[in-house]
Amino acid sequence: MRTYKALINNQLIDNGQWLEIINPTTLEVAGKVTALTADDINKAYSVARSAQQNWEEVELLQRIEVLKRFRNEIEKNKEEIAQIMSEEIAKGLKESLAEVERTIEIIDYTFEEAKRIDPLAMTGEGMGAKNKIGVFSRVAKGVVLAISPFNYPFNLALAKIIPALVMGNTVVFKPATAGSLVGAFMANLAINADLPKGIFNIVTGRGREVGDIITSNPEINMISFTGSVGVGNQIRKMGSSTDLVLELGGKDPALVLDDLNLEKYASEIVAGAYGYSGQRCTAIKRVLVPNKIADKLIPLIKAKVEALTVGSPQENANITAVIDEKSADFIQGLIDDAKAQGAVILTGDKREKNLMWPTLIDNVTVDMRVAWEEPFGPVLPILRIDSVEEMIEIANKSQFGLQASVFCQDISTAINVAKKIQTGTININSKSQRGPDCFPFLGIKDSGEGVQGIRESLLSMTRYRGIVVNY
């Protein structure tokens, strides 16, 4: 059984208390991580604060060289990281390795982008203030709390940690419970890389027991969180004086406006809806399509869904077990509610514990829960809507506003519809997706707060400091 310890001040912490992590595929214990106490967590913040000023005073290029050692440890251990991830969250082994490799690319890009965060130099002459020159530089905010989700436990962790560290912040990192093995494994990499003491600390434990302690410490200058709407809104309430970047849920719609390339539309929709068993905030979670197009599009979608493989992540099946049985129960509840109200199950609606077959539901109406609630599982509802105006209205009525897709070969029509959809990003003729990672990534409404992306993360984790020379 894998056993990984928390990391505080570059020391592995074994307080004799452990949190077991369950393998979603076998429902057996995959490993255990340290279950920290409040005193342990407060110590992590204390050492992060003590180390921050010295770390920020290290020149940027030297900070990058230090962090490159950590990056190189990731590359040396990428197969092991992928294996842990596959066991811990039931993500296909090939997809897990791709996540690690993508993360290395993000780290490399971040190092280069950090070199281009140049100071802003200004004179006051435009306001009639002569003999003034101002230099406004980006400086670290201080101590950053980074909280990652279970579904991308490596990528979305390092996409927070590296920008924070490279700009001179120190980090307290809390992985999601499912994802803690991958998160705590980073402690070994940090020690092997000989990171300076206190700049990177990993705290693990039961969220329901230590969540408030982790997010309310007065040493925190910024919280970067990816996870559920409920926890995100709780952080909003607690962190009123703390800078926040929140990436929460989504109910991403796909609007199909014509029938000119239905094969491509169907491929994009299925890939967008069922990738990693639908456990993605950017997954396509509802299709809005006119009746006359639906009758031609749906058979294409159905055939592609039925071609998806179901099984083990070690065999790289398209559909693997969702993260736990509680999640499976919630997803099944959405399916059952739709059936009870007259929706038609085209394929799927089969389950073995928390392994759920990909389900496609036709004739979904706005009265059904699955039209509005985020399943975070392999379920796709189809709503037949003949009016483009009504499609836009339904898309915008959601509490979420992360992404959307518009499928249409007339680019003018597609752009005009996209401009009316209230989400952070609209994809034309493509599935909703997070990348490329150099693009800004954001959500509105209950989908988030602030902006991520490589450059945007560097900016969000810094503030301006102005020095004005009067001569």
TrEMBL record:
The active site is at 247. Gene3D superfamilies: Aldehyde Dehydrogenase, Chain A, domain 1 (3.40.605.10), Aldehyde Dehydrogenase, Chain A, domain 2 (3.40.309.10). Residues 19-465 form the Aldehyde dehydrogenase domain. The keyword NADP applies. InterPro entries: Ald_DH/histidinol_DH, Ald_DH_C, Ald_DH_CS_CYS, Ald_DH_CS_GLU, Ald_DH_N, Aldehyde_DH_dom, ALDH-related_metabolic_enz. The keyword Oxidoreductase applies. It comes from the Bacteria. Keywords: NADP, Oxidoreductase. It holds the Pfam family Aldedh. GO terms for molecular function: lactaldehyde dehydrogenase (NAD+) activity. Belongs to the aldehyde dehydrogenase family. This is Glyceraldehyde-3-phosphate dehydrogenase.
